[in-house]
Design goal:
The protein is mainly alpha-helical. It is built from 16 helices and four strands. Strand 3 and strand 4 form a beta hairpin. Bound molecules: flavin-adenine dinucleotide.
């Protein structure tokens, strides 16, 4: 794909240059650090939408959780830390609340922290169903040891998930058929045209919603083509680029123009997450904010690298303007935003229905990451209380949100880089 993207003022080439040479290498380094590689997730939550007890038996779908001694104590001890002292107070508050303690029994400092802490109850801002990481079923997973790649999860089970996502959650009436949908009975050029005239007729927010989901779908499919199981013998297992798989999914001719459209949606998703990261910079710049693992030197170095990356992101010249969304009549905009939020939350719940655990892990992480990006973009607290110039203590992100936000963006950034790799491979073939 080349050229300008719809609904924004940016082009593919500018993103390629910025991502592949400036951002991607540094981001990869950050994501290899202890703070970002360990993600706590509950992969055993039952599917809330249909009864499905079947377990996927594909070898490459398995996820290996961490042994308890693998994860640094600093990460395990609580879900979030600004600093060790602040965190002790939060623990005290949590305990006080569990015990139903009355205010007078708390120290003055704790009372202050309780106030601060309740302000952090920002569930109305959330675009994602929070995973119950306190559940005994939740486990830490080392993301570096469980990479997103080809798993062999495909066919009607995978289609059913994508279908439910698009059909029931992308504001789409049933009469409009998605092009090339393998679960639809008959296909034809006319139907495709109807789909795109429907999409173009939507308000920009609903169109954006569809684009984000399609971008995520495209990104997953780029990854499985780039880390494909090329050879599987008892001697060797080899993963790498599968150009044919990539072409079948994204070639303009083979996909009747759908592939390039989907890749443009991937770039659109990139821009949305990029803008959220640039906007949240002051939150991470707060002097007492730590990427706490318990290793002081490493933690300080990581924070420096994180800020370097965020400053780089801020300097990107063609940021998406989120003010173009939810901008009309106040009441209508509010209702639309609420719809947007509820649909997105639904999608995060559908991830518990994905039969392949590896796909479920990365599906959950990426929807949570995108949900966090949307929370940042549209949070009233952030808008009202975090002017670009100064830090705010009202806006809050949990460790889980931070880890998923950066890892999700890391996935999209890797996809953009992989598109360059595929371009080079295709160039060499021809
Ligand atoms: P699918 O990708 O299943 O798509 C179904 C239909 O949707 C297509 O026929 C097409 O009409 C349409 N479509 C396809 N792409 C787009 C798009 N970008 N925008 C709009 N419409 C589109 N497989 C792995 O190997 N590794 C993984 O990590 C992995 N993670 C997954 C995570 C989730 C949440 C899900 C639901 C699936 C995952 N899969 C993964 C499976 C993978 O996404 C495909 O479903 C599978 O490879 C079968 O591909 P397909 O070509 O039949 O079409």
């Amino acid at each position: 794909v080349t050229g300008y993207l719809d609904d924004c003022t940016c082009d593919v080439e500018t993103i390629d240059r910025f991502n592949n040479y400036k951002l991607f290498p540094r981001l990869q380094k950050l994501l290899e650090s202890d703070y970002f590689r360990y993600y706590k997730v509950n992969l055993k939550r039952p599917c809330p939408f249909w009864n499905d007890t079947s377990q996927c038996g594909i070898r490459d779908c398995a996820v290996k959780p961490c042994q308890s001694d693998e994860v640094p104590d600093g990460i395990k001890s609580a879900s979030y830390k600004y600093s060790e002292e602040a965190n002790n107070l939060i623990e005290e508050c949590e305990q006080a609340e569990r015990l139903g303690a009355v205010d007078e029994s708390l120290s003055e400092e704790t009372q202050k922290a309780v106030l601060q802490w309740t302000k952090h109850d920002d569930s109305s801002d959330n675009f994602c169903e929070a995973d119950d990481i306190q559940s005994p079923d939740a486990e830490y997973v080392d993301l570096l040891l469980n990479p997103e790649r080809y798993t062999g999860y495909k066919g009607p089970d995978a289609w059913k998930i994508w279908n439910v996502i698009y059909e029931e959650n992308c504001f789409k009436p049933q009469t409009i058929k998605r092009p090339l949908n393998p679960l639809a009975s008959s296909q034809g050029k006319n139907k495709e045209n109807t789909f795109y005239s429907w999409l173009e007729g939507l308000c920009v927010e609903k169109r954006a919603f569809y684009r984000l989901i399609s971008g995520l779908h495209a990104s997953i499919n780029v990854h499985l083509s780039a880390r494909y199981l090329l050879q599987d013998t008892w001697l060797e297992t080899k993963w790498g680029h599968n150009v044919t798989e990539f072409q079948q999914r994204f070639d303009a001719v083979l996909t009747e123009g759908e592939g390039p459209r989907r890749l443009k949606n991937l770039y659109f998703l990139y821009l949305i997450e990029l803008r959220a990261l640039s906007k949240v910079l002051p939150f991470f710049e707060r002097p007492d904010f730590q990427l706490f693992t318990g290793n002081k030197i490493q933690d300080a170095e990581n924070k420096m690298l994180l800020l370097e990356i965020l400053h780089e992101i801020k300097s990107f010249p063609l940021h998406f303007d989120e003010n173009s969304l939810f901008a009309g009549d106040k009441k209508e905009a509010q209702k639309l935003k609420e719809d947007f939020r509820l649909h997105f939350r639904n999608i995060s719940r559908i991830m518990d229905c994905v039969g392949c655990f590896k796909c479920r892990l990365w599906g959950k992480l990426q929807t949570q990451g995108l949900g966090t990006a949307l929370k940042i973009l549209f949070s009233e607290k952030l808008i009202a209380n975090m002017p670009e110039s100064g830090p705010s203590y009202e806006f809050h992100l949990t460790r889980q949100e931070i880890v998923s936000l950066f890892n999700a963006f890391g996935r999209i950034s890797t996809s953009v880089k992989e598109l360059e790799n595929f371009r080079n491979l295709l160039h060499n073939i021809h």
